């Protein structure tokens, strides 16, 4: 195991959590979007992570595997005067719940901060080890 493997793992987690926060911010920005380019309401997105492992090098960290659509049903509200209302007067709104998004954002933010602290601790340990060698 390399001296820098811990730093590589923390750096990969920083990248993954940053993507997760970007996906969350996209969800929040589209909480009221009833019409997209594909037609229909915006569908909540979720970033999925997976382990990044190499047989020779060992653990390389984590990576964002894909961004998938949340399969929870869209919200339907009765608004007959809305331009996107169907023939029954219902409008489909995104399946984005602000409370869930904020909780996910806090979790991602804390994970990001934790990895920054870990990276700084590793950097400090390497620096102290180099000082011992003088």
Which short descriptors sum up this protein?
two-stranded antiparallel ribbon; 2 helices; 134 residues; 22% strand; alpha+beta
Biggest sheet strand line-up:
1-2
Q: State the secondary-structure class.
A: alpha+beta
Continuous helix count: 2
Radius of gyration: 21 Å
Number-wise, the strands total 4
The helix content is: 40-55%
What kind of assembly state do the chains in view correspond to? single chain
Give the overall silhouette: elongated
- How far apart are the termini? 24 Å
Describe this structure in words.
With 134 residues, the chain is α+β, with helices and mostly antiparallel strands. It has one domain. The chain contains 2 helices and 4 strands. Strands 1-2 form a two-stranded antiparallel sheet. Strands 3-4 form a two-stranded antiparallel sheet. β1 and β2 form a beta hairpin. α1 runs antiparallel to α2. The longest helix has 35 residues. It is elongated. The model has no long low-confidence stretch (mean pLDDT 90).
Question: Summed up, what is this model?
Answer:
By secondary structure, the protein is an alpha+beta fold. It has one domain (5-132).
Layout of SSEs?
Layout: H1 5-29, E1 45-54, E2 58-69, E3 75-78, E4 90-93, H2 98-132
Antiparallel strand pairs: 1-2, 3-4
Helix pairs in contact: 1-2
């Amino acid at each position: 195991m390399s001296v820098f493997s811990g730093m590589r793992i923390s750096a990969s987690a920083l990248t993954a959590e940053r993507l997760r926060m970007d996906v969350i911010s996209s969800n929040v920005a589209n909480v009221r979007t009833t019409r997209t380019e594909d037609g229909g309401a915006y569908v909540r997105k979720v970033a999925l992570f997976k382990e990044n492992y190499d047989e020779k090098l060992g653990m390389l960290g984590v990576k964002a595997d894909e961004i998938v659509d949340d399969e929870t049903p869209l919200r339907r509200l009765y608004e007959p005067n809305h331009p996107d209302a169907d023939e029954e007067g219902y409008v489909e709104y995104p399946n984005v719940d602000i409370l869930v998004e904020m909780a996910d954002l806090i979790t991602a933010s804390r994970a990001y901060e934790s990895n920054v602290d870990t990276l700084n601790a590793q950097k400090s340990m390497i620096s102290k080890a180099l000082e011992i060698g003088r």
